[in-house]
Specification:
The chain is mainly alpha-helical. About 85% of the residues lie in helices and about 0% in strands.
Amino acid sequence: MKTFIYLGIFIGSYVGSLVAKLWDANLFSFSGMLSSIIFSILGGILGYKIYQRFF
């Protein structure tokens, strides 16, 4: 279960940094950090839900 959550957090953080790059924000700007945090939380929740559903 931890593996799915950590993988979701990792992928979500990566996607969050890419979303910040779409509006030309630096990764260490407030909006870059905020989008990375939000997407990593969502990725962790999604990883947990996938684990519950399939395993």
